[in-house]
From TrEMBL:
GO CC terms: cytosol
Alphabetized InterPro entries for the sequence: CheW (IPR039315), CheW-like_dom_sf (IPR036061), CheW-lke_dom (IPR002545)
Protein name, as recorded: CheW protein
SMART domains: CheW (SM00260)
Pfam families referenced in this protein's UniProt entry, alphabetically: CheW
GO biological process, one term: signal transduction
Residue span, CheW-like domain: 11-148, 201-344
Species this chain originates from: Methanospirillum hungatei JF-1 (strain ATCC 27890 / DSM 864 / NBRC 100397 / JF-1)
């Protein structure tokens, strides 16, 4: 019975997000795209877990509060929150979450203490992996149960925040500014979408580095992980931060700050590794924060010229507004990105 119970774990791609201290994944195929939080119309709120509606280019979508469905204390939307537009049967809905990031592939076997049929079926459509990681493998089952069910995820998992992780907002003025930002975003989102021929596009992950935003073509991304221990390797180029182990495989880590001569501005996190591969070569890019996923029109990418920076010319395809698109093909064909860990 347990083998059938965990057969879902063979799926290759997940979109992961966080709510409070809990990380949660949904099948990547269920997600359409992600947008920044906008003002939610609460007039049509009609059920537990339903936060209201948004207007997406004339289409009214119901918004499900994953925070409420998990059992956390409710709070108002924040500009840093995200909405994931997903398919729920024949309709599209929005999932309100805190932070969104992508992980592709990986082993999601539950910990031994959660290898219990009762625990794994108490909330339909969901499987518990660890004390802070779950997977929603059937969105329809999970969302429908959330409207009527009594059991919440934090009834099962220990909440280190005591159920109160609401950010402190210091003044009425702060609330007014947040409301203004969210309303402006909602007005833009409600504008009709132009009916034009679809130009060629690429699917990308966007990330921040030294307060600049970059994009990487999704087809080269194997996975995105949190930064683990980095081991420096003497005698390597300055832009090689070191090596780390990813599922038993040793990969080199490239620091774009050095490679692209990006001026340093304050402290940064570098707490994400974007693992790139073309099937032959594999290495990781250090990033401060994953800011989202989406598509870019290839025709909108403007080639940028920086005569004084050869590396920028080689490794940046171009720019859309202030978003720099990496030339991953050039990175993956540069032998300097790979180091021989047998020499360490």
């Amino acid at each position: 019975m347990l083998n059938n119970l965990y057969s879902w774990s063979a799926m290759d791609h997940y979109l992961f997000f966080s709510v409070g201290h809990i990380r949660c994944g949904i099948p990547f195929s269920d997600a359409i795209f992600m947008i920044r939080m906008v003002s939610i119309n609460t007039e049509n709120r009609n059920g537990k877990g339903k936060a209201g509606t948004i207007n997406l280019h004339g289409e009214i979508l119901e918004v499900y509060s994953i925070r409420e469905l998990f059992g956390f204390k409710e709070r108002p939307p924040l500009p840093s929150d995200n909405l994931i537009i997903v398919r729920k049967g024949l309709e599209n809905v929005a999932l309100w979450v805190d932070e969104t990031y992508v992980i592709q592939g990986g082993d999601l076997e539950p910990e031994d203490r959660f290898m219990n049929e009762h625990l794994q079926t108490i909330i339909p459509g969901m499987r518990i992996i660890t004390s802070d990681l779950v997977v929603i493998f059937d969105l329809i089952e999970f969302l429908d149960y959330g409207l009527i069910g009594q059991t919440r995820l934090i009834d099962i998992l220990i909440d280190p925040t005591g159920g109160n992780d609401t950010p402190h907002i210091s003044s009425v003025r702060d609330y007014q500014e947040i409301d203004r930002v969210l309303r402006e975003r909602a007005e833009q989102l409600a504008l009709p979408k132009e009916e034009v021929k679809r130009p060629p596009v690429i699917e990308v992950i966007r990330f921040n580095l030294m307060y600049q935003e970059f994009a990487v073509d999704m087809k080269y991304i194997r996975e995105v992980i949190q930064t683990s221990e980095i081991t420096p390797v003497p005698g390597t180029p300055d832009f090689i931060a070191g090596i780390c182990s990813v599922r038993g495989e040793i990969i080199s880590l490239v620091d774009l700050r050095t490679l692209l001569s990006i001026p340093e501005k304050g402290l940064t996190d570098l707490n994400r590794v974007i693992v790139l591969t073309d099937g032959n070569l594999t290495f990781g890019l250090l990033a401060d924060q994953i800011t989202g996923i989406g598509t870019l029109k290839t025709g909108d990418i403007v080639r940028t010229v920086r005569k004084e920076q050869t590396a920028w010319q080689n490794y940046i395809c171009g720019t859309i507004d202030s978003l720099h698109v990496l030339n991953v093909q050039a990175l993956l064909t540069d032998p300097r990105m790979i180091i021989d860990d047998t020499e360490t």
